[in-house]
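Hello,

I think I submitted the nicotinamide-adenine-dinucleotide job twice by accident. Can you confirm which output corresponds to this input? Input:
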Amino acid sequence: MDRRLRVGVVGGRRGLTLARECQMVGMEVVAICDLDRARLSSASSALGAVPYQDYDAFLAHDMDGVILANFFDAHAPLAIKALKAGKHVMSETAACKTVAEGVQLLRTVEQTGGVYLFAANYPFKPHARELRRLYQAGEVGTFQYGECEYLHGFSPDYLTHFGQEPRHWRSRVSSLAYCTHSITPVMYVTDTLPTEVSAFVIPSDSSPESLDAARRGRGIAAVMLIRMDTGAFLKSLHGFLQGEQEPETSWIRIHGSRGLIENLRHGDSRRVRVRKEEWTTQSGQVEDTVRDLVWDRGDDALVCESFARAMQTGEPPYFDVYRGVIASLVGICGLRSLLRGSVPVAIPDLRQEDVRHEYESDDWNGLEGPPK
Ligand SMILES: NC(=O)c1ccc[n+]([C@@H]2O[C@H](COP(=O)([O-])OP(=O)(O)OC[C@H]3O[C@@H](n4cnc5c(N)ncnc54)[C@H](O)[C@@H]3O)[C@@H](O)[C@H]2O)c1
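Support: Only one job matched these inputs. Its output is below.
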């Protein structure tokens, strides 16, 4: 394709950041859509893009792809409509809020032949890319057990913001829903997929109200024990506990059959540690090394570049619709697990048509905990 790719963006907050990244990597941002008039007006002037409040009118704009950065639990219907209108889609997480939506999204991508890129950016943080390089080079053998975290140590005052708008998605979705920042880096490093989840929500305190809210999916953070398709186990923790990593709010540890790789929890979280036991080294000595990484590219730029590449070549991106839906199902099946007393719940492998049949009418909203 000789001409510059043209994209439009839905949502003028996170969407504005992604739109700027698209411009920086050489795409033209031609249209922006937001329901909120004030946000639309400032974002359209900042980008020099045509403003739309109506999504159907926006989709009629001449462009190659759309970037969905609307509400967290409302991406699938907009993605399906865009694909049917002949546009490629890059969608923020979550990909779907029900298993049925996941089935519909997968089928639409297959039927239309459009590109679908799940905008997981945490796998493309510098430490996660280095951990992938080390793992794929066989430095620590095969993945047996891993841990991953995505934490923000917000103050109680800051957290009350979320409660002030009870219908906003940040107040509405369960503490389990936003699991993709912790788990997608491990999927990427090890090329594995989640198949089963047991989930727990941590109450913010011991009051009866907090304990009850946590049983319904609302707490300060969430823990999940996830079985991967190789039989390896992954413990994931995400939420608002104190002890945020800096500068990247992400920690990953992979125990392999021959050693350990992780990024550091103390100091610069981009530093990567490799530990090899003495029985695996040529010297016969333990090798435990830490190295600094040279920052090269931002994760959002890499995600936008891979969207451009996929649109140009038709090659599916790493986080395609299958990985995007499966990662989103971890939050949905996690809530199901929690509500059943944290029992393990299978994550349906929607790549299989017979499994899709079984789940195509499962329209239970797995991102929102039940009200009292
Ligand atoms: N990957 C990251 O690091 C990262 C960071 C922030 C947000 N996000 C994701 O981006 C998405 C948006 O987050 P946010 O913080 O910008 O949310 P937000 O609620 O602040 O903004 C969403 C915007 O979308 C608009 N919108 C909603 N529905 C629309 C529709 N049907 N048509 C047009 N406009 C619509 C809203 O008016 C609002 O301005 C979420 O899925 C969030 O998880 C990702």
